[in-house]
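Quick one before lunch.
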Amino acid sequence: MNIYQPQLALVTAVTEETPDTRTLRLELKDEALRNAFAFHAGQFGEYSVFGAGESTFCIASPPTRKGFIECSFKAVGKVTSALREVNVGDTVGFRGPYGNWFPVDDWKGKDVVFIAGGIGLAPVRCVIWNVLDRRDEFGDVTIVYGARSVVDLVYKRELQEWASRSDVRIVTTVDPGGQTDDWKGEVGYVTPVVEATAPQAQNAVAVLCGPPIVVKLTLPVLERLGFADDAIFTTLENRMKCGLGKCGRCNIGPVYVCKDGPVFTAAQLKELPAEY
Amino acid sequence: MTSADPTRGTYFITEDDLRALTGELLGAGTEVIAPVALDVCASPSAIASSACLRPGVKPIDIEYRALESAAQLNLGSGLPVLSLKQYFLPEYEALCCWRQHGTEIEIEAVPTEFAPRVVLAAKPCDSAALAVVDKVMNWDYADELWNGRREATTIVNLACPVVDESCFCTAVGTAPDDAKGADALLTPVEGGFLMEATTDKGRALVEAHAARFTAEEGAGGAGARGRQAAEERAAARARAAANLEIDAASVRDWIDTHFEDPLLAALGVRCNGCGACSSVCPTCHCFDIVDEEEGIGKGTRRRCWDTCQAPTFTLHASGHNPRDSQNPRYRQRINHKFAIYPLKFGEVLCTGCGRCTRVCHAGQDLVEILQAIDIAARRREAVSP
Ligand SMILES: Cc1cc2nc3c(=O)[nH]c(=O)nc-3n(C[C@H](O)[C@H](O)[C@H](O)COP(=O)(O)OP(=O)(O)OC[C@H]3O[C@@H](n4cnc5c(N)ncnc54)[C@H](O)[C@@H]3O)c2cc1C
Ligand code: SF4
Ligand code: SF4
Ligand code: FES
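Model of the FE2/S2 (inorganic) cluster complex:
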């Protein structure tokens, strides 16, 4: 079997997150492969609808939960629109896991601050659950999550679950104008909300994912809060095709994002040409 | 004359014997790919072109083609319009096929083993490009489709006299008489060709057709043919070097450290992103992956050539485009070939074939561009302590 041939995966659950975003739970059909499948938080895959093509999403479920993977995606184009039509019982294609990962094991004993904007919560969710599934290995856990509006918040049930835990501090926010009458969270863009939340930086790491503009604006805020460049982790979402370091699509400067990434520290980001 | 001694590397073969060998291969059912002269005017799309209306003129294109007969083998010095790349990374290549039965889907694998085949009279810049691309096709994940075709193919180069002023192979570490990426090298000499087998596959080809070869002194050896071959090869190298001489290592380091330099940042002004340069380039290997339905519930997933010069190459679904104009896209072409790839894989992603310069209707000239970068790099070295 060549490296571009996908595995078949069964859709076993579908969650409509927002009007344009949904989460699929997938189980590899081949039992041996399903049982052997292992990955790290932050890795991604190529998901396909036969006839529409392949699309790149992070694996949004944590590696601590076995037997299935989940992906959450926003319908923005050809493949994502086709994936929006699939139902429980349908078969899709999957290749992966690919890329590097968050060095979660190195964070033992540290505080972890999660910051996500929009669908950027998908890769962060994987790490959040990974950390919460091993809760006593880490210090304080803070989550700051922002979306355009209340309907655009993804993983609503999990946001509530995290909010109800005493060992998690969570701040959710929506852009000005995106709030509803009964909205109890913050109103404002993610960046100023992070600044106001002011997580302490001593012996802490920050995980930051979101649209390029959110990442760009929030990095200096984290710096002001005292986070060192190598304590800030983010993911790049350059367009990809192969995910295997062959097709050239994701190359920027010295890195192939699909192999050398998608996880980078702010220190590594500063060394790259601004082509992300 | 005595028949060939397969333990020795250098042989002589007449043109008649080379064609007879070609005939033997074809007769045995082996695919033979070689330069062929094509009548440009025979293509329906070319009928209106003015060149075809002029009496007494018969414009031809040279292309690598699977031969139908040994007579088609073109042993002239013309450069095929498209490189050998198409036979290793086809323009459209199936990655897998699918068939849907209700909600069930079945995947059919594509073969990754290929029948043995031979390339004759390959351009040294084209075989060298395969050895360069081998690196990206094999870091970590191995591309079995590429590797399968590489392993199945025996490549015999024909030393090149240097085609025109766009050639610059010697500036990027190869040469008009290089056997890099190939298994043997033919050099034209009085009465035929010297044939040097440089790999086991090359030696096996000689062995299988031993009666066609006679043992010979190597190029530069004592024999008259060896001297002739050495002289002509040296002259060809000098012609290539006269077109362009750069210090590829300092060009690499300068590009790597001068991303924002106005010289690099404005390189794409004339380019309009047509991507012709990538199509003709033997080392450009970027590809897209697309699904093509072939009737209801079945189809093929294919990869097809792509180009970093296209605006859609890096366009995010959100509309954000990290390389949002032709300047950064052209800079990527230069950066990837002359800095990124050399730093990552130890090889320049260019063999100096000059095709991109010849094909570009906008006048982007790689010789000129590399010269300008080389001057900038040398200037820096001159001023730094
Ligand atoms: C490592 C990584 C992880 C990611 N994780 C996630 C995730 O978890 N969730 C998520 O939602 N997204 C994620 N993304 C982004 C996701 O990959 C894209 O949103 C998705 O691939 C879009 O696929 P599509 O086929 O639906 O869009 P496409 O149909 O490919 O196109 C999207 C848009 O691109 C443009 N476009 C494409 N082709 C052309 C063309 N030929 N001509 C003109 N315009 C064109 C159009 O504007 C189009 O609307 C991730 C990306 C990466 C690299
Ligand atoms: S350099 Fe020339 S051939 Fe290449 S994309 Fe630009 S215009 Fe086309
Ligand atoms: S970049 Fe131009 S000169 Fe270099 S190998 Fe490609 S087509 Fe030939
Ligand atoms: S996605 Fe193909 S090289 Fe990275």
